[in-house]
Write a structure and sequence with these properties.
It is built from two helices and four strands, in the order αβαβββ. The protein is α+β, with helices and mostly antiparallel strands.
Length: 101
């Protein structure tokens, strides 16, 4: 119901806002419409052409812009840097100080 309240889906100015393909498919299934073709209007707006009219419109618009945003937990952590010989590098945690005579 939150998605259905986000817009009417009948124009690119008031699309349904979704964050996954599963949500798109759920809305299409719940409305009981049959999709013929899927196309992109812009990078963030997707259009679904319908077999039969829905509320006088030939298609539905979805705002998919949030699908492209990565959540912080999805970002890859940087791998450890390669050190040729960490025991000889004074900035390394594994540095071994030379003996003093």
């Amino acid at each position: 119901q939150v998605i259905l309240a986000s817009g009417d889906g009948l124009s690119k100015n008031s699309p349904y806002h979704v964050i996954s393909r599963h949500e798109e498919e759920s809305i299409i299934g719940s409305l009981g419409v049959e999709v013929i073709k899927r196309s992109y209007v812009t990078v963030g707006i997707e259009y679904f052409m319908l077999k039969n009219r829905y509320l006088g419109s030939r298609g539905l618009f979805f705002d998919i812009e949030r699908m492209w945003i990565k959540a912080p937990q999805d970002r890859k952590k940087p791998e450890k840097k390669f050190e040729f010989n960490p025991t000889l590098n004074p900035k390394s945690k594994r540095y071994i100080k030379p003996p003093v005579f």
